[in-house]
Design goal:
Strand content: 5-15%
Structural class: alpha/beta
Number of strands: 11
Distance between the termini: 57 Å
Length: 425
Amino acid sequence: MEIRESSTVTPIHVHPNLQNMETPPFPSPPRPPVFHTTHAGTYLRSTHLIPAAFPRLVPDIPLPEIPQYTPGRSAAERLKELEALTREVVEKQHKFMRGMLGGDHSVKTNISGNAGGITLFLAHANGFPKEIWETMLRSLLDSPAGYMVDEVWAWEAVQHGDSGLINAHNLSGISDWSDDVRDIAHFLLSYLPEDSETEALPARLERLPESTGEAGRSTGIAQGRWWWLDILSEDAHRKWLRAAVDFPKLFSSIILVDPVIGQPYTYPRDYYSMALGAISRRSRWASREDALQRFKKSPFFRTWNPEVLQLYVDHGLTDDSNGGIKLKMSSVHETLCFINYMPSWETWEMLDKVDEAITLRWIVPKEGFVGEEATRVRVWRRPANSSNVIFHSFGHLIVQEAPVELAQDVSRFLLRNYGSTKAHL
């Protein structure tokens, strides 16, 4: 398969029906306004919506449906159905990546700090909600560098978590991480509030004047903010590094937590098996307690920090209208994101083009998802203004397995690059 040439982000336009868009209700119950309290102060929590970037790059085609489970049918028959669906999904995604899939771009109309401190932007990996960061974040705020953090934005892509519930009837049956790049750039340039006092912000953020966005492109986000630092988990690199190449002034540092960046044709080695595993995963349980007990017995979840696992149960699952609970992000959407592997190759190609003024910090396990030698090559792909650390005792899902250790390394990074403990004494 031919790798697409690196190009600028497809232009984002003001939605023609922006003023008449209805703001959907949040699908999950409101959470307490106080997120965390340290000796330096109290951090408040608020949740917000913005319209997704317009137009979408993915064609407006139906989402494939997983065949309904029929009691009494053999496991072999069920597997045969899922294999056929997986082949269909993979073939359709391949056609899209080659530019061979018809259909119009989607034009649906439904939507999905204090001066002197650091602003963090947290981007989740495929399959996880924005709340997956909370254990790490609390540890970071309690750390020696916690006083430096003034505001934190935890992003949730359109098909993940509560965003996925809000957008359930408006999502395409094709995935393209380029749309996520555009959504993030859209937020930073057109919706990031100049004043982030949570009590004054509406649930649906208001679009900023065009002049503010243009200033952000050329000089960076400077209204009352010192630094903009981004912490990316596993798959989030695909959208963020693309945005960093196109809008370098928006970023000060990027922390990459074992990002899925691989040399072309080296990853994934078997995307079909990965797709079949995702599409076949269990997605419904009798209750949250039932799900939690089953997760604890699963090799995949067994290595997770217990608090993070509880966050996933609390915020990655939702009530099922047919009884019990289910995943907020459907297994079909998780599959579509997995098999959209081309951005992993494209990101490798553009890594050495990331502005050297942007500090890169790599946090990786010993093996990484591509092996020890390939990981060593990857972290030095752009050697200038770059550093790395190896977490020897943990696997690929560092945010889930080692949130406290991750927070400690981020704290040291902040103190080393943006300040010192002296300012806090």
